[in-house]
């Protein structure tokens, strides 16, 4: 049989595997007055300790290295499952909302720009004289250019 250890906040409850007789506890050199099967350590400081419980003819020992905290909240499996499922539902809801909003915006934006382009007529761009193509008969501007041979 084994010890049963329960942790709640800073309280550690240890249950001895021995069932009959008067139980004597010893915790790292200290012998508490308790003779019951369960021993409660209030305000445990998370330091490792050696715990033993014994009767007249039997002794069980255990090394206790329990981490405790003052502001911890205990959650059962159902609460954790509920939190995870709710988070997934909210995430999928936001994804679907973003998908449909972007899908609708994309359709409106592309048809609106086509209609504007068809309604408005723009004049042709003004040619830049620095980038005019060379035409026959107008060699004056480009007289400094020579063909490489």
From TrEMBL:
<dbReference type="Pfam" id="PF16681">
    <property type="entry name" value="Ig_5"/>
</dbReference>
<keyword id="KW-0732">Signal</keyword>
<keyword id="KW-1133">Transmembrane helix</keyword>
<dbReference type="GO" id="GO:0042105">
    <property type="term" value="C:alpha-beta T cell receptor complex"/>
</dbReference>
<dbReference type="GO" id="GO:0009897">
    <property type="term" value="C:external side of plasma membrane"/>
</dbReference>
<feature type="region of interest" description="Disordered">
    <location>
        <begin position="106"/>
        <end position="138"/>
    </location>
</feature>
<dbReference type="GO" id="GO:0007166">
    <property type="term" value="P:cell surface receptor signaling pathway"/>
</dbReference>
<keyword id="KW-0812">Transmembrane</keyword>
<feature type="transmembrane region" description="Helical">
    <location>
        <begin position="77"/>
        <end position="100"/>
    </location>
</feature>
<dbReference type="InterPro" id="IPR015484">
    <property type="entry name" value="CD3_esu/gsu/dsu"/>
</dbReference>
<keyword id="KW-0472">Membrane</keyword>
<dbReference type="GO" id="GO:0045059">
    <property type="term" value="P:positive thymic T cell selection"/>
</dbReference>
<keyword id="KW-1003">Cell membrane</keyword>
<dbReference type="InterPro" id="IPR013783">
    <property type="entry name" value="Ig-like_fold"/>
</dbReference>
<dbReference type="GO" id="GO:0004888">
    <property type="term" value="F:transmembrane signaling receptor activity"/>
</dbReference>
<protein>
    <submittedName>
        <fullName>T-cell surface glycoprotein CD3 epsilon chain</fullName>
    </submittedName>
</protein>
């Amino acid at each position: 049989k084994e010890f049963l250890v329960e942790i709640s906040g800073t309280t550690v409850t240890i249950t001895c595997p021995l069932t009959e007789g008067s139980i004597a506890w010893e915790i790292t050199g200290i012998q508490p007055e308790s003779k019951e099967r369960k021993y409660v350590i209030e305000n445990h400081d998370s330091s490792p300790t050696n715990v033993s419980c014994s009767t007249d003819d039997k002794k069980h020992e255990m090394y206790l290295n329990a981490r405790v905290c003052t502001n911890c909240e205990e959650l059962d499996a159902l609460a954790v499952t509920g939190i995870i499922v709710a988070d997934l539902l909210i995430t999928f809801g936001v994804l679907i909302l973003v998908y449909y909003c972007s899908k609708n915006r994309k359709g409106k934006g592309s048809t609106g720009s086509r209609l504007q382009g068809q309604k408005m007529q723009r004049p042709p761009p003004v040619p830049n004289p620095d980038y005019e193509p060379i035409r026959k008969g107008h060699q004056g501007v480009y007289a400094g250019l020579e063909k490489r041979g």
